Amino acid sequence: MSTFRIKPNRPDTEKLKVDDMNPFDRQERIGWWNQDKLREAKVLVIGAGAIGNETLKNLAMLGIGNILLCDMDTISVSNLSRTVLFRKADAGKKKAETAAQRVKEMCLEESSRVDFFDGDIVWELGTGVYRYFDIVLGCLDNIETRFAVNKNCQLVAKPFIDAGISELACSVSVFGINEGACYQCFADKEQMNSARKRYSCDNFKKRMFGERRMSTVQISSAIVSALQVQEAVKIITGKRAAISKKLFFQGTVNDFDIFDLQREEDCLAHASYDSIIETPLTNAVKLRRFLNFVSQEDKSGKGAALDLRGDRDFLRSIKCATCGKQTFFYKPVFRLFGDEVICSNCKKQDGERFVIGEYDYIPDFDMNCEDTLLDLTLEQLGIPKLHIVTVRDTAGGYKHYELSGDVKNVMPNISNQ
Do 96 and 69 contact (CB within 8 A), yes or no? Predict the structure, then answer.
């Protein structure tokens, strides 16, 4: 019989020195840890609910240097059992602003910067925002927003880590840059339908729609956030992460599985920008000024047109198919509710009648547009701050322009470096 001895690892004497005045002393004892990278990291967190609260707390305690958190909801009493950042007195306050205040208070890194965005993430968070961050963490409870976040991450090539919970089950899916699957690759018909539940068949918003409330508990959000942030730390510090993997934990039976996520080559969400031109413009400029800027010879040239196709629809008017009345709106479709576009003449006759009309959408805008349009701001056209817009030249070529002048408007603290 042979015997052998395991050679003990010799401790690094430097690691044995205790620095109790350093809040990151214990994590910096990990051999591959790089606190400087965490301090310099910029993390975009989408959602400040149950998962978002845990994730924001974890990022603050790890010493992440720059955090932008986004949400559009208000705090309800029913949120309190799953949201470590909120208090009873916070009921009715905005989640994004309140969470940002508490996260800043928790940040152990003295130089940390925290900003927040309070608005519709699908339509009002510009694609350019994603470009300024190293990684995007999804802490969401609906499919539509997940699709939107995934699409924007694909467009500007940013890693996206999605987290979800249901009862005692939770999952984390990790999507890399231009490799493997994206979130939409494995979307089924039910998910595609779910993504459209707040819109009519004509793409107008519904004032009332069924919103499913997820059955869950704070235990699940704590577990899933730990997994999500763990993978984020790996990516930030250059360690190998679970790219194109789904980490699934079923707490009822303590079963942990890892699934491969297969890339769907025909997935429509795989489009990405080949190049982006930064501009000093904001979404507060009028269309006329924007077109003059991009029509310069060294840009897209004379005759350039702002092309909104594939991004957002803009409605000039609807002509009623019953009485022929034409009603002008001059609004992006996502800002219109279905009951706003019903013909007023026919509605008086029959309040329940939804009259199908002839829609006049404007897919692109050039200097030949009517003055009413040229005098609208980009924001009035439905273009959010720091968005990346597409411009077509007269030869059919396309360039992508970022409204970079909005950087300080979207993230005043993070941009102040």
Answer: yes
Taking the C-alpha atoms of residue 74 and residue 380, their distance in angstroms, rounded to an integer, is 25
Rounded Cα distance between 130 and 273, Å, is: 13
Q: Where are the alpha helices (DSSP H) in 89-142?
A: 95-106, 121-124, 127-131
Q: Which DSSP state fits 214?
A: P
Decide: 286 and 377 in contact? Cβ < 8 Å: yes
The arithmetic mean of pLDDT across residues 37-63, rounded, is 97
Please give the domain boundaries of the chain with CATH numbers for all domains.
Answer: 14-270 (3.40.50.720), 277-410 (no CATH)
Q: Give the whole-angstrom CA distance, residue 100 versus residue 48.
A: 9
Q: What is the dihedral of CA 166, 167, 169, 172, to 10 degrees?
A: 40
CA 354 to chain centre: 34
Span 82-104, pLDDT tens digits: 999 999 999 999 999 999 999 99
Q: CA-CA distance, 356 to 338, in Å (whole number)?
A: 11
> What predicted TM-score, i.e. pTM, was given to this entire model?
0.92
Distance CA 378, CA 392 (A): 16
d(CA 122, CA 274) in angstroms, rounded, equals 22
How far is residue 134's CA from residue 141's CA, in Å, rounded to a whole number? 23
